[in-house]
């Protein structure tokens, strides 16, 4: 299968762009192949294709031996941590046995102390077919190992795009290596770091139409409604909301011993991450320069937004002249700006890099002061779903994390964060109760927007329910209070309230307006607070705008209405006015109030018993 698509490639006999093919092995297994350019001028294109490979075939021609660019290729393989491969000596038919043995010996020396030191070495001749069966056997064994590892990549689907093309009548097609999860026909995918969402119309794997693509496979995807030019190499297709674009990445950097000079703080570099080439600056967190051969935690300050996951590997090249100088692994894909020379920061990054799943999960929960779903934890830590669930179970059992649930959704939170939030809430509630002693509690939405603006209404309710179970909070329909809090009037307010009640009961069926009542008892401040208190306590009942009845008076009225309806079966406005010896001003609002409360039901100009009165 010819992987050279361009006219120039065929004329010059070299690969310039990425080429793609697949190989069917005798056991039925199909292996995807990415042919990357070997010439040093096309290293940039080579880097776009190697991010998702499981097996490397390091090809060295017998008649040429190890070339300068081969050394850079091997550096890149090591930086990307591709530790499974085979060294292939090609064109053995063009040299004699003595020369071939010398090339093999030189090659063994070349890969010594690298990830390919113990890799199988196979000599082949494509013209004569020599060594090909042995090579296929080696590839099959390596493919079995790679397939077993690929099954572990079961997080949300994520596919760095390395090629985009258009087929007439079919639309835009994107290809790449599926790094994790599954993609199904009909799924919705989002273009990262800053694109829209599109439905998967068709999927092909190794030239065959399929319904589902699995992690580790080379995949071609046709997206419905995607216009030409929207998607390009370097973008990532992933589940909507599963990634968070950023301009900062925390990275463990390996600076190659072959680098020509120390790497200085704020050096501008080229970053090859997934299938993307990006520009950024290296922020050294604990030193002013990094010596060749050394490692350090750094922050990459990118010149454009990027979407990545914890554990992603990258290659770094100098800005000019372009040469590979190092590589690294993403430790924190959504980093914040750091102050340099902080020992606790380096410790935290070390845990993020090498800690156990439990330590990593605990640190992530503590650092992300929000309610995290299971999917948040998978995408945020780079761990598999099974690993996250196992580690989470341990943290919950040990009391280092808490689970909150509401309306079918579960979220997780660090106990330290929960304790801080609880203290924050309690302090705010104590201050609120002191300032407004007559109110039942702090209005929920006002409290959320003041203390937890980043939490959705649903997640805030989830938090409150969790804290209520601890026994420190009390929830009302629309407010929150410290457990056991009871609205309590001051001495002066208590006297005024008693006088107000007496004033309302003095004319029970023709109550005064609120302003008149306040003026009568000499209440000069907190008038609205006292009114709300009386309404919340049920002492006064709002019958209409600006009209309040004492609850004892209203109870008497309802009893009179009930008796009248039991005797006569219907009630007219004039009859209620006469029964209460009041005026239309009060009788009509009372009837409308009773209609609203289902005590009566209007039929023409009459009222009959309502549902509430009939029960």
UniProtKB/TrEMBL annotation:
Q: Where in the cell is it found?
A: Cytoplasm
Pfam families with a match to the protein in the record? Beta-barrel_SelB, GTP_EFTU, GTP_EFTU_D2, WHD_2nd_SelB, WHD_3rd_SelB
List the GO biological process terms: selenocysteine incorporation
Q: Does this UniProt record's set of keywords contain DNA repair?
A: no
Read off the SUPFAM superfamilies from this record.
EF-Tu/eEF-1alpha/eIF2-gamma C-terminal domain, P-loop containing nucleoside triphosphate hydrolases, Translation proteins, Winged helix' DNA-binding domain
Gene3D superfamilies assigned to the protein according to its UniProt record, in alphabetical order? 1.10.10.2770, P-loop containing nucleotide triphosphate hydrolases, Translation factors, Winged helix-like DNA-binding domain superfamily/Winged helix DNA-binding domain
* Gene Ontology MF annotations: GTP binding; GTPase activity; RNA binding; translation elongation factor activity
Tell me the ranges covered by the Tr-type G domain, including all copies. Answer: 1-147
User: What are the record keywords, sorted?
Assistant: Cytoplasm, Elongation factor, GTP-binding, Nucleotide-binding, Protein biosynthesis
Provide a GO CC annotation, any one.
cytosol
Functionally, this protein is described as follows:
Translation factor necessary for the incorporation of selenocysteine into proteins. It probably replaces EF-Tu for the insertion of selenocysteine directed by the UGA codon. SelB binds GTP and GDP.
What is the name of the protein in this document? Selenocysteine-specific elongation factor
């Amino acid at each position: 299968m010819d992987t050279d698509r361009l006219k120039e490639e065929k004329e010059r006999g070299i690969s310039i762009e990425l080429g793609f093919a697949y190989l069917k092995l005798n056991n039925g297994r199909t292996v995807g192949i990415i042919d990357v350019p070997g010439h040093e001028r096309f290293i940039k294109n080579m880097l776009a294709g190697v991010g998702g490979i499981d097996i490397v075939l390091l090809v060295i021609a017998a008649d040429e031996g190890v070339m300068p660019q081969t050394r850079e290729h091997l550096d890149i393989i090591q930086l990307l941590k591709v530790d499974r491969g085979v060294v292939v000596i090609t064109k053995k038919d063009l040299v004699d046995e003595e020369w071939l043995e010398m090339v093999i010996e030189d090659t063994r020396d070349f890969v010594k102390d690298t990830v390919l030191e113990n890799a199988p070495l196979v000599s082949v001749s494509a013209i004569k077919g020599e060594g090909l069966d042995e090579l296929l056997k080696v590839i099959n064994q390596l493919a079995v190992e790679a397939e077993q590892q690929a099954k572990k990549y079961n997080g949300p689907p994520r596919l760095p795009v390395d090629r985009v093309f258009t087929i007439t009548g079919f639309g835009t097609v994107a290809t790449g290596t599926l790094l994790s999860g599954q993609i199904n026909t009909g799924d919705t995918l989002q273009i990262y770091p800053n694109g829209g969402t599109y439905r998967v119309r068709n999927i092909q794997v190794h030239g065959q139409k399929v319904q589902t693509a699995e992690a580790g496979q080379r995949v071609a995807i046709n997206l419905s409604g995607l216009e030409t030019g929207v998607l390009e190499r370097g973008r990532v297709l992933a589940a909507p909301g599963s990634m968070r674009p950023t301009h900062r990445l925390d990275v463990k950097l390996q600076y190659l011993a072959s680098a020509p000079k120390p790497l200085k703080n704020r050096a501008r570099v080229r970053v090859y991450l997934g299938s993307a080439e990006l520009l950024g600056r290296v922020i050294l967190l604990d030193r002013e320069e990094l010596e060749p051969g050394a490692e350090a935690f750094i922050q990459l300050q990118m010149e454009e937004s990027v979407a990545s996951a914890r554990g992603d590997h990258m290659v770094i090249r100098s800005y000019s002249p372009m040469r590979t100088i190092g590589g690294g692994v993403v430790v924190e894909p959504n980093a914040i700006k750091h102050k340099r020379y902080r020992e606790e920061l380096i410790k935290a990054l070390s845990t993020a890099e090498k800690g156990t799943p439990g330590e990593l999960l605990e640190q992530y929960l503590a650092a992300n002061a929000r309610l995290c779903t299971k999917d948040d934890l998978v995408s945020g830590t780079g761990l598999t779903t099974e690993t996250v669930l196992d580690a989470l179970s341990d943290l919950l059992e040990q009391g280092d994390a808490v689970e909150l649930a509401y309306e079918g959704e579960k979220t997780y939170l660090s106990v330290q964060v929960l304790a801080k939030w609880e203290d924050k809430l309690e302090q705010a509630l104590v201050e609120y109760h002191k300032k407004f002693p007559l109110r039942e509690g702090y209005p929920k939405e006002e409290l959320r927007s003041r203390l937890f603006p980043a939490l959705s209404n649903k997640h805030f309710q989830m938090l409150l329910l969790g804290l209520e179970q601890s026994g420190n909070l009390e929830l009302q329909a629309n407010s929150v209070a410290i457990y056991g809090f009871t609205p309590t009037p001051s001495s002066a307010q208590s006297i005024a309230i008693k006088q107000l009640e007496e004033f309302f009961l003095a004319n029970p069926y023709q109550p005064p307006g609120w302003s008149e009542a306040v003026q009568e008892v000499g209440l000069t401040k907190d008038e609205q607070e006292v009114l709300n208190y009386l309404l919340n306590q049920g002492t006064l009942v709002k019958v209409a705008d600006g009209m309040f009845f004492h609850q004892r008076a209203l109870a008497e009225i309802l009893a009179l209405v009930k008796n009248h309806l039991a005797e006569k079966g219907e009630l007219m406005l004039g009859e209620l006015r006469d029964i209460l010896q009041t005026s239309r001003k009060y009788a009509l609002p009372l009837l409308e109030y009773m209609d609203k409360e289902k005590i009566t039901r209007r039929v023409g100009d009459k009222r009959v018993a309502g549902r509430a009165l009939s029960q």
